[in-house]
Amino acid sequence: MAVTPIEVFVAAGADRWHEAQALRAHELVRLVPTPRHATVLLVAGTILESERAALDRVHDQLPHPREVVTWDEIAAAVDMADDVVDAVAFEIVGRADAVVADPTTSSPTRLPDEETHEWRDVGPFGQGGEGMMGGTPYGRAMAMTADDRDGLRLDRLQLRLGPFLGQLPGGLVADVALQGEVIQSIEFACAGSAPVVTGDRSVPVARRLLWLSHALHVQGLDAFAVRAARLARRSSGVGDDSRLASDFSSLRRRLRWTGLRSALRDVGDRDGVDTWARWSAHLDAISASLDGADPRLSPAGGSMPITAAELAETITGLTLTDAVSTIIGFDIDVPAMTTAAVEP
Amino acid sequence: MNEVEQLSAPLAIVVVSVVLVVGVYVSSVVGVVAFRSAAGQPLRPASAALFPAREARRLSRQQSVRTERPDMILRVLAPAGFLGLAAAAVTVIPLSPGIVVADVGTGIVLFGAAEALAIVAIFFHGWSPNSPFALVAGYRFVAVALSYELLSMFVLIGAAIPAESLSIGAIVESQADLWNVIRQPLGFPLFVIVSLGVTFSGPLDLLDSNDLAGGGSVEDSGIQRLAWQIARHAMRIAFAACAAAVFLGGWHGPLLPGGLWMALKTFAVIALLGFLDVFVARISAERFVRLAWGVLLPLAFLDLLIAGVGAL
């Protein structure tokens, strides 16, 4: 039996990403922000063909001894009456204990240890650029100086974020250009013109609580994320739900003392609505649902749908931290985004 | 001032090691307890007490992954340097009346130097794995560090004024009648903010943070991760002990022996830092820099003014 929590990295397709957050409720499972910290890679939901290579790269980043657990296999095997999250947690603990006891069974490396792109290209130094600068050595654009927002010149670093990044919703892929910590440009790879849901009032309360759990994790409040995940489990019918509304109010009161409000106010402002206002709208909607009121009647705030292009516009010029907080604050419906991109 | 007993070199090494080992262990247990109480989980004191040992055993058996073209020297030097600086900072703090590992007359200068060099070690931690999130976290930390560093200098100098000495032992002596936490009420809270910054905790969790997929520690596994966590807790011990000595009257207190008072006060600050780490959300670096230069630095000036007027 495990005595310290098993560290798990979740690589979830867009369709199961929220559900997987429920694992935070389990004392013996700790969801970690990077695969390097994890013993178990949890693969959940539909992995698109375009995401397979990224999944293999994430897999190979786990240190030995490591193990892979697939949510959907377990979900298919359990009875209707049984709880999938409990079954997954049970499987994670069992498999992790086994692989730690016998490291020879550690999951083997999937990709060859070689460069995906050649260093060699055209030009005198082979990197493909002009003189000693520029080009895409090893397939990565060399960071070149460019004007920044403060009137200085600073290296511009191109990065692809996602689809399996701890701090962003599963399946979300974005190409960013960074100068220092500031986002100069961002483009959502799977976006197209898909409308992205933010404050749909028909969203079930359990999903909203799972959003809250992940969002708290990103803001550095992991312990409160555990509480939110437990409430989410209870709201979907696992365990006692008689005092759910009052327990949520108590969590909300505690959050008032964490400084979240001052951390999120004036961040990601769009049409006079900032990230804290969006959080408040989510929290109000949860309170309203738990009190039995029609959530559609709760005060609006960030309930407008936003397209990927509008989201990109909102976060351009923000620091990476604020951009992540802003994206999370919207509770983007990534499946809607991804499906729209796949079906032309 | 009491006769100061200068410890012999081997004894000094033993004392510093014991302080750090016990301190790091206690600090990580406090972290577990703080987390469980915030998460509403059962506290299970026995399991919490064993937690650091089990975690250390687990991480020491895990593979320490080598990243693509890391700066190997700095990768080793980052945790080693951070731990070494924490140890150096501990040496100038008097542990009980007359017992200090290194009785230097300029104790707070040495402490401040260790604190400033810690920024370099922390930057190495972000730089060395050759990974974008770690690099961003490292640079971001330096921006924040430059903003809190001045606060620390001002509040420590403020505490040195009534003692008329830069020796931490003398600063403790000067608090026999009135602790600095009351004489200079701004000093302690500002020093706590500095401590949160150096140990990247709670609101200033801007290095190894979840919004950057683990930030500076994004590539750390196994021993590498364990070493960094130990170094971070060691730095927390150094700052907690310094806060106890400089602001909370050090060994002064009724009934109990001085060494025990010092240990209790250090523990209280460790607990404060451990709980703030769990209970307070991260604020963005940009916001902190604004706050530090616009509000906290003027407050530090005021603290210095209070100390100066008090000394007249």
Walkthrough of the structure:
The complex is a heterodimer of chains A (344) and B (312). Helix content of chain A is 38%, strand content 14%. Chain A is an alpha/beta fold and 344 residues long. Among the domains of chain A are: 6-105, Rossmann fold; 199-304, no CATH class. A four-stranded parallel β-sheet of chain A has the order 2-1-3-4, sandwiched between helices. A four-stranded antiparallel β-sheet of chain A has the order 5-6-7-8. A two-stranded antiparallel sheet of chain A has the order 9-10. The radius of gyration of chain A is 21 Å and the shape is globular. Chain B has 312 residues and is an all-alpha fold. Chain B has one domain. Chain B has eleven helices and two strands. A two-stranded parallel sheet of chain B has the order 1-2. In chain B, helix 8 runs antiparallel to helix 9 (222-246). The radius of gyration of chain B is 19 Å and the shape is globular.
Highlighted features:
heterodimer; A: alpha/beta; Rossmann fold; 4-stranded parallel beta sheet; 4-stranded antiparallel beta sheet; 12 helices; disordered C terminus; B: 312 residues; mainly alpha; two-stranded parallel sheet; 2 strands
Secondary-structure element order of chain B, N to C: EHHHEHHHHHHHH
- The oligomeric state of the chains shown is heterodimer
N-to-C span of chain B: 22 Å
Q: Indicate the overall shape of chain B.
A: globular
Which structural class do you get from the secondary structure elements of chain B? mainly alpha
Query: Largest inter-chain interface?
Result: A-B, 47 and 49 residues
N-to-C order of helices and strands of chain A: EHEEHEHHEEEEEHHHHHEHHH
Largest sheet data of chain B: 2 strands, parallel
Strand arrangement, major sheet of chain A: 2-1-3-4
Amount of helix of chain B: 55-70%
Uncertain spans of chain A, ≥5 residues at pLDDT below 50? Answer: 340-344
The percentage helix of chain A is: 25-40%
Proportion of strand residues of chain B: under 5%
Which consecutive residue ranges of chain B, at least 5 long each, have pLDDT under 50?
Answer: none
In DSSP terms (H or I, runs of 4 or more residues), the helix count of chain A works out at 12
N-to-C terminal Cα separation of chain A, in Å? Answer: 49 Å
Q: Radius of gyration of chain B from the CA trace? A: 19 Å
